[in-house]
Design goal:
Elements (H helix, E strand, L loop, with lengths): L12 E2 L2 E2 L2 H9 L5 E2 L10 H6 L4 H6 L12 H11 L9 E4 L1 H13 L5 E6 L4 H9 L2 E6 L9 H11 L3 E5 L13 H10 L2 E5 L15 H8 L2 E7 L12 E5 L2 H14 L5 H37 L12 E5 L4 H12 L1 E2 L1 E2 L8 E5 L5 H20 L1
Parallel strand pairs: 3-12, 5-6, 5-7, 7-8, 8-9
Antiparallel strand pairs: 1-2, 4-10, 9-10, 11-14, 13-14
Helix pairs in contact: 4-11, 5-6, 5-10, 7-8, 8-9, 11-13, 12-13
The chain binds pyridoxal-5'-phosphate (PLP).
Pyridoxal-5'-phosphate binds next to helix 5.
């Protein structure tokens, strides 16, 4: 086994495994960098803040169960996910609770793709599903969004489904790292229904819109057109609670729900029971307030960043607690120089199939800290540009 290049593990294969460039880049540097701007969600609220939002954390902690949980997930939590996240388009029986969106995506890949099946995958993206598909031995067609507005172009994707008839299409909506939220999903659902293609949408940034209405779940269009769809989600981004490691996978097809549950038996048996109980309390008392808090922080920080960088290179995302900055030259070199010379950690676009850009987090909660961070970043970037 060879050693992964600590500088940037893009494109590295270790014993047949594609290294997850973004996660490895973060793991290597996020505990030592002076200024961490590589996160994609909001900074987590303090326990005091949660209590102000109406969550009685102490009472929940006192009655925590420490046995194994329900393998499909705490029933009350699944009911809350069905009603609060999906507006009851699906019921609790269609949902499996997972260890974050990450395990939800793993279950979705294993349940819908067998070796040599054809999958279409949306890029640029958080390349977890892309890497899992490679490990699964799937045939992968990369569907590339065009830079600029980064639209999903549902008509173009629907035509591709008609032409290729893939087993599954994987989309991240709202998209990471482009922040584009696609709200017209009918054509896709129609095409998927025609060919029996499964639509798997990673919706972890749904509800974190900085402009425009809430992004609809793929489950809505799928229901209208008789397509089979899977939605993955989590409390990590929109609700700023990544440490709970609570996510879920939801589908409108009961047979697929059973299959997702069966895969879960092999991965983690059940999700952490204390986390499930805390998650249920958060969703019940404070879901809207937590989402509103993350949106407020990200929208304010986008303005601070645009002001600090002069606006012109900073992309304006529709959703997410991150944005892209266009850089001249090789984004991996820029990210490395930011880290080496200025102790600032950002994500190089090379780790997300978004060459020519760096991704910058908008999650810092304190306004003064955020302003200082972006002034530091923008002055470092202009220094790097000047050479
Ligand atoms: C699109 C997307 N999906 C899933 C995840 C995994 O997040 P978690 O497992 O914390 O929910 C991330 C994390 O950055 C992400 O950006």
């Amino acid at each position: 086994m060879h050693v992964v290049d600590a500088a940037l593990p893009a494109g590295f294969i270790v014993d047949g495994f594609p290294v997850f460039c973004l996660e490895r880049w973060q793991s290597l540097h996020e505990t030592s960098a002076g200024l961490v701007l590589s996160e994609s969600g909001g900074e987590p609220p303090s326990i005091e803040e949660l209590e102000r939002y109406g969550v009685n954390v102490e009472a929940v902690v006192r009655r925590l169960g420490l046995g194994y949980g329900w393998t499909k997930g705490l029933p009350r939590l699944r009911e809350l996910i069905a009603s609060r996240i999906y507006g009851d388009i699906v019921g609790a029986e269609h949902i499996v609770v997972t260890a974050g969106g990450a395990e939800a995506n793993l279950l979705a890949v294993l349940a819908t793709i067998a070796p040599s099946d054809l999958a279409i995958v949306d890029v640029p993206n958080y390349l977890q599903v892309w890497g899992l598909l490679a490990m699964r031995g799937a045939r992968v067609y990369e569907y590339r969004r065009r830079s600029g507005d980064w639209s999903l172009e549902p008509g173009r994707l629907a035509e591709l489904i008609d032409a290729l008839r893939p087993k599954t299409v994987f989309v991240t909506n709202p998209n990471n790292p482009t922040g584009r939220a696609e709200r017209s999903l009918d054509m896709l659902a129609e095409a998927a229904a025609r060919h029996g293609t499964v639509l798997v949408f990673d919706e972890v940034y749904r509800g974190l819109e900085l402009s425009g209405p809430r992004t609809p779940s793929i489950l809505e269009a799928a229901e209208s057109y008789g397509a089979v769809a899977v939605s993955t989600g989590s409390l990590s981004k929109t609700y700023s609670l990544p440490g709970l490691r609570i996510g879920w996978v939801a589908t409108n097809n009961m047979q697929l729900a059973e299959k997702l549950w069966s895969v879960k038996d092999y991965t983690t048996i059940s999700t952490s029971r204390p986390s499930e109980e805390l998650a249920a309390a958060m969703l019940e008392a404070a879901a809207d307030k937590l989402a509103e808090r993350t949106r407020r922080i990200a929208a304010r920080n986008l303005e601070l960043l645009s002001t600090a960088c002069g606006g012109d290179h900073v992309h304006r995302p529709e959703a997410g607690a991150f944005t892209l900055i266009h850089v001249k030259g090789d984004d991996a070199v820029v990210a490395r120089e930011l880290l080496r010379r200025h102790n600032i950690l950002v994500v190089p676009g090379a780790c997300m199939k978004a060459p020519g850009y760096i991704r910058v987090g908008l999650g810092i909660a304190d306004e003064g800290r955020a302003r200082d961070a972006y002034i530091k970043l923008c002055s470092a970037l202009s220094g790097i540009r000047r050479g």
